[in-house]
Amino acid sequence: MSRRLPRKDVVIVGFGWTGAIMANELTDEGLEVIAFERGPWRDAPTDFPPGYMQDELRYRIRHELFLRPDQLTFTFRNKMDQTALPIRSWGAFMPPNGVGGGGVHWNAEMWRFLPSDFVLKTHLTERYGAAFLPPDMTIQDWGVTYDELEPHYDRFEYLCGTSGTAGNLSGKIMDGGNPFEGPRSRPYPTPAQAQPFSHTLFGKAARELGYKPFPQPSGNLSQAYTNPLGMRLGPCTYCGFCEWFGCGNYSKASPQTTILPHLIRKSNFSLRDNSEVVRINVDLILLDITADGCDLRHAGNRIELIANKPILDRA
After folding, report:
1. Buried-most residue among 72, 132, 209, 291 (CB within 10 A)?
2. Which residues contact residue 118 at a Cβ distance below 8 angstroms, ignoring those fewer than 6 apart?
3. Residue 196: exposed, middle, or buried by beta-carbon count in 10 A (0-12, 13-18, 19+)?
4. CATH number assigned to the domain comprising residue 240
5. Is 178 among the domain residues?
6. Structural domain boundaries enclosing 43
7. How far is residue 306's CA from residue 24's CA, in Å, rounded to a whole number?
8. Band of the pLDDT at 3, cuts 50, 70, 90?
């Protein structure tokens, strides 16, 4: 049986990094926000305690944090004349499932795109000539530049407490960092992680050969850090359980460690888990968002979201 919920200004479908950041920004502006996430609630201290988080059978083999093919799968074919069949077992492509999305199980590699990536067609034609690109290649410039996005890169890195060594500060090449990166407005918020013997030895050999090795920027923190929202993160213990696993040490940047504890305290934000949006219908009169969760109608804004919240959690 459906029920009418209070009017909301914004509905966010899916609650990973993007959903969490958008919800925080929009609620700061005073808007009433509700978010829907198809998977279960996940919380760092209760879902990922260090006492059993390193359960490789549960997380690495049985894929506890991922969408299961029997919940929702994708079809795939190698050629146009083949019949697409459902994917029965995930490979390198691992769709997340649950609050925090892929930000829960990621490795926290914190690369920026290069300035040339944003103007790739222009960059390639200027470097190699207009005839270099085949006529049927759809490559285009992005329409936004690195310089325009740099403040947002910077803000995200300081939200996460990213550990690294700057290689280009406002156009000045810095020793020990990535000399090929685009100019950044300030250093990383925390220094690069400590390098083990093997990495140190490899770096020494590379420098002797004239190369410029540098530590990879990481969302696994080298030291304790408090982000602009007041969230406190701890230093990485180098346990090795990053990808495929959550982090109960508060050492890896994720929505759970950088945003959620701040966001859920706001009276103008609500989150409904185990509620999956399955279809969006659009017509000239009313925009219908049909979901598998709760019934939300915004007649004044011509928005309607209808759903059934499942009784049992398949996780």
Report:
1. 291
2. 141, 142, 144, 145, 146, 149
3. exposed
4. 3.50.50
5. yes
6. 1-75+88-108+220-315
7. 24
8. low
Is 80 within the bounds of a domain? no
Specify whether 230 is located in the same domain as 266: yes
Report how many domains make up the chain: 2
Answer for the pair 184, 171: CB distance below 8 angstroms, yes or no. no
Find, among 15, 59, 100, the residue nearest to 242 by Cα.
59
Residue 11's Cα: distance from chain center in Å?
A: 19
Residue bearing tokens 């966001």: 263
What DSSP designation does 300 have? G
Q: Where a domain ends, among 218, 243, 260?
A: 218
User: Using one digit for the tens of pLDDT, what is the confidence trace for 105-164?
Assistant: 999 999 999 999 999 999 999 999 989 999 888 899 999 999 999 999 999 999 999 999
pLDDT of 92: 76
Rounded to an integer, what distance in angstroms lies between the CA atom of residue 176 and that of residue 198? 17
pLDDT averaged over the chain? 86
Between 189 and 297, the more confident residue is 189
Segment 184-190 mean pLDDT: 97
Last residue of a domain, one of 194, 218, 242: 218
Instruction: Indicate the range of 25-34, 82-91, 171-180, 229-238 predicted with least confidence.
Output: 82-91
**Cα–Cα distance, 197 to 194 (Å, whole number):** 10
C-alpha to C-alpha distance for 17 and 308, rounded to whole angstroms: 25
Rounded Cα gap, residues 173 and 286, in angstroms: 55
